[in-house]
Amino acid sequence: MAQPDQCLSANTLLGALLPDDLATLAPHLTRVPLLREHMLVAPEKPIEHVYFPEGGVVSIVSVMPRSGRTEAGIFGREGVSATCLLLGTDRSPHETFVQVPGSTALRIDTDRYLAAIDQSESLRITLLRYVQTMLVQAAQSTATNASHRVESRLARWLLMCHDRIDGDEIALTHEFMSMMISADRSGVTVTLHILEGGGMITSKRGRVIIRDREKLEDLAGDSYGVPEAEYRRLIGPFGKGTAMSAETGKSQAL
Known about the structure:
The chain is of the alpha+beta class. It folds into two domains: about 5-140, Jelly Rolls (Sandwich); about 150-225, Arc Repressor Mutant, subunit A, CATH 1.10.10.10. About 40% of the residues lie in helices and about 20% in strands. It contains ten helices and ten strands. The strands form three sheets. A four-stranded antiparallel sheet has the order 2-6-4-5. It has a three-stranded antiparallel sheet with strand order 1-7-3. A three-stranded antiparallel sheet has the order 8-10-9. A hairpin with a 2-residue loop joins strand 9 (about 200-205) and strand 10 (about 205-210). The two termini are about 25 Å apart.
């Protein structure tokens, strides 16, 4: 089986690994496409593969029979799927699937992944640091939904999606955005008009174009930036905009 050229991977979590740890994983990584709604982790089912995205946006979604679906977190080329494996369980109650497609991921069988982690303490520590950033992201989402208006919540999530893609155009449906900010679709439509009227974005059918990121950051306020700073502190460069420029400069590919 042909293996990808690892030095060309844009996954920054892989790029943060020690050379020996990356060399342990590399023979077992296969590049695969990430298509919209591709399920990376199915709820309550044993996890067979782990994915290191090289772009796009992946959603972690809580599915509640009465309340519907709510996004619990997102990741992209800075992360890896199935963090529950690092915490001693082979399944999760949440869905993990691709929301913004158009890229690839490096996939590894779960048993190979866990064997590599058992073999290397440094690999395990780096991956657990990533788990910490996801826990911070989840806590920040809870605090934001409790204390910020809908406009600020949407600004935050647009910034988070913008951090994970190339360029300024994001393929986002109203359904996805309603999950992102815990609001109904009519509320999303009104909020998009507010952001567009403020010159922050252009909203078109199925996509949002970021026009003024600095204004979005101002609107998001303290709802945005804590998980991103934690990632930069523990792992490496990540994100766009003023905070990224001030702390670490431009992000570099692996």
